[in-house]
Amino acid sequence: MRQAILVSACLAGGFLLSACANDDAATVERAFQDVNVVDETDLNDVMLTAADPNEAASYFSRSLQGNPDRIDLQRGLARSLVRAKRNVEAVASWKKVITLDGATNDDRVDLADALIRTGNWDAAEAALDEVPPTHETFKRYRLEAMVADANKEWKKADSFYEIAVSLTTRPAGVMNNWGYSKLTRGDYAEAERLFGEAIRQDQALFTAKNNLVLARGAQRNYSLPVIQMGQTERAQLLHTMALAAVKQGDVATGEGLLREAISTHPQHFEEAVRSLRALEGA
């Protein structure tokens, strides 16, 4: 009898230990799953910021093979393709994103951005039209301004640029775009003002410095603006000013500026030398 009781007790203990073991295994498995999710999230972030964009695109593409409906992976692929300047592929990827559960208005704005990068302005405008007016973000209004520029809808462009500037703490880039819009319209004084504002916001923005010189040259003002610049930058800006002078018909002034650019550059300035030889040959 005692033997039977002992056997029963052993069996019960065995079942209890088995249950405990199963519970422990399940707990450990869940813990590893949680760790894997955290690790994957960290890796995704690294791929989107620090990794080579083509390597990142390959990583997200491989990840999607087993998880085709994971919107975070599809977004990662689309953003990596944009970083890699593979814009046609990026458009296709963003179009996939907006069909998935969890798609947002930001995704539609990113699709419009990719479409603009491919030069498909009409499709970009259509994508932005799908975004409700209540979605007020810097990127949305910056793109709206660019589309209005492409359509030569100047009042709309100015309104959108103004809103975009108010929605960011780093407005230098959009001010530069706005200034270039004014430059193409022939409003050189306003373009000069906007380029100056862009440079005050970001003194390293060479594109705005170059555009500022173009705006001054278009007004036959051939003196360099008083802005922070290195020796190489000064030479490059003198070269731009020289070409602006030649375009205005002030050839002698252009030649003098080219000579100054060549003597200012700390190294051999081949581009300016070619420009000077072309003028002298003419």
From TrEMBL:
Keywords associated with the record: Signal
Organism domain of life: Bacteria
Signal listed as a keyword: yes
Signal peptide (residue range): 1-21
Protein name per its UniProtKB record: Tetratricopeptide repeat protein
Species, as recorded: Parasedimentitalea marina
